[in-house]
Write the structure tokens for this entry.
Amino acid sequence: MNMGVTIAGLTVTYGDLPAVKDVSLRLEDGTITGLVGESGSGKSTLALSLLGHGNIASGSVFIDGVGDMSKMDKGALRAVRGAKIGYVFQAAQNSLNPLLTVGKQLLDLAKSHGVRDVRGAHPLLRRMGLDPDRVLNSYQHELSGGMRQRVGIMFALVLNAHVLVLDEPTTALDMITQANILQIVREVHADRGLTTLIVTHDVGVVAEVASRVAVMYGGRIVECGSTKEVLANPRHPYTRGLINAIPRLTGPVDVAKPLPGTPPTLGTIPAVGCVFRARCPIRMDVCSAQEPEMIDDVACHAVGVTAK
Amino acid sequence: MIEGRGITKAFKQVQALRGVDFVIPRGGAVSFIGESGCGKTTLGRILAGLESHDEGRLLRDGEPIKDFRPIQLIHQDPYSALNPTRTIAQILRDPLRLRGHPFSKAEELLSLVGLDPSYVLSRYPHQLSGGMRQRVVIARALTVDPEVLVADEAVSMIDVSLRLGILALLRNLRETLGVSVLFITHDVATARYVGAEGELYVIYRGTVVERGPVDTVLAGPVHPYTQCLLSAIPVLHGLEVPGPDRLVPDEPLDERVEPSGCLFEPRCPFATPACAQEQPLLSRLGDTPQDHACLFPARRHVVAVPAR
Ligand SMILES: Nc1ncnc2c1ncn2[C@@H]1O[C@H](COP(=O)(O)OP(=O)(O)O)[C@@H](O)[C@H]1O
Ligand SMILES: Nc1ncnc2c1ncn2[C@@H]1O[C@H](COP(=O)(O)OP(=O)(O)O)[C@@H](O)[C@H]1O
Ligand SMILES: [Mg+2]
Ligand SMILES: [Mg+2]
């Protein structure tokens, strides 16, 4: 099944403030794309647009073989969510109903989609290293953080979705559990031939699983490309700063440097000019006057100059 | 100098700490790393006087610690640590008055933690970024002239671009005020940034399994648990290549199993029958440069190394 996703000129607003502005991004069929950025940069808002969630002010989210999520009515969205697009929400480890067993919640999900047979949950759970009978008979509090996250992935895929969105799937987990979840994501993605979007603030997570990466800042995608390329050769000054700020395990300690300033919030994102300029070490006059266009996968006036 | 000797603590079903020894020199830094559930938070809370312990002793310069006020806990969540209904000025006023400090000290402390007093004093916590809030929490801890800051995952909720700034602040406070730091983290690389000359303690199921200078342990871990932990750290493919000996534990952690020998034996890729017989004690068996608790210590290269 061919199910890539094309996001074009997408703007999503809260009130009249854009949390995502004029974003275009293609998720190639069968790839894992990482969406990385700091808190408030608009990652979750962008990811939710794949479910056709409200607030889309302009632009489109086209899923191959399904249609434009931004134009669908409620009934059509309900049918597509879960069945075509599996979504693991941020903090999913706390989003199970504490009063119902996992198995009961699975039956409820199936019923709401008019599906009778959910035996597909068993091989999925087993594939992720869990004992299906034990998990389905458990309540949320009886499962560890890593187990809950795997249950979340099972819920996202049990109706045979082909597009999988994972929002911060490892954020509350320790390193060993995180490595285990990332391994599962890689395997399930490959087994099922999914198109996967993984949202994270952690460049390391993207580096481990995603073949492509998009870097978000202040509601814009400022750079995208193959993960290895972007890590080895970041072109946008924000991408460079973000990578430089990662504490490193080896080498001199002072190679890593904090990025000066703080990330903007919805109210402080400048309406004109480049959203990164306040923290940018190479800003020029044009940066306060004009928003840089995405040219050759990077949106920066300084990079545009040298490329031309 | 702050010292813990043979600290044990049991909760109903779990033995959270099984006899932990540690020494924090004045102005020094000591880091604890380990999977979640290994007892790190419990140890930090015991040292801060917020939790009782069953056996063992806590000493300040050789004398039992009676006054825990100079040991201040900074925990993970700067969002819940500050009263949302009070301004930063109000938050700092009471603890300063209690210590008999004039209110002007608030400005001094805020500047010390890298905040502009004229900006933050009149604001409420929700008007500040996570990084700024954590600095306020640190400033509040400093109002009581602390000897030790217990930083429990203190940067894990802070934006990546700001983490190094908070870590540098902790290092600075050690150097300028002689404050000691007990640094608890699951993000090993950050431990180097509060003090690479400090000691790293690797804790597993309530026991210290490896201990030595941070860079010694990172460069040549000898305990398979440490090796699994370090192997799980994401590799920045493109910038780094994985260590050649990267390891994964055989099994997930199961706290319900109480092994009779080495606690890590059921998960250890190198376990031998001898390992199931006796519980190894922390030593330098095999002439290693660091202390470890393994019958068959072997140096392995598991940490990623820079590409090229
Ligand atoms: N429901 C909402 N109402 C108003 N503002 C929101 C809402 N959800 C998110 N925001 C704001 O939109 C911006 C982007 O948020 P989000 O997409 O959650 O970012 P991220 O996932 O990168 O942390 C933030 O400034 C956030 O405060
Ligand atoms: N108040 C408590 N009551 C019962 N069990 C607890 C309590 N606090 C911690 N534990 C248990 O003690 C063990 C160690 O927990 P903790 O110190 O929080 O570990 P870490 O900080 O390394 O994740 C865990 O098994 C945890 O479930
Ligand atoms: Mg988010
Ligand atoms: Mg903890």
Notes: The two ends of chain A are 40 Å apart (CA to CA). Chain A has a mean pLDDT of 93. Residues B 11-12, 14, 16, 34, 36-42, 255 surround adenosine-5'-diphosphate (ligand 2) (CB under 6 Å).
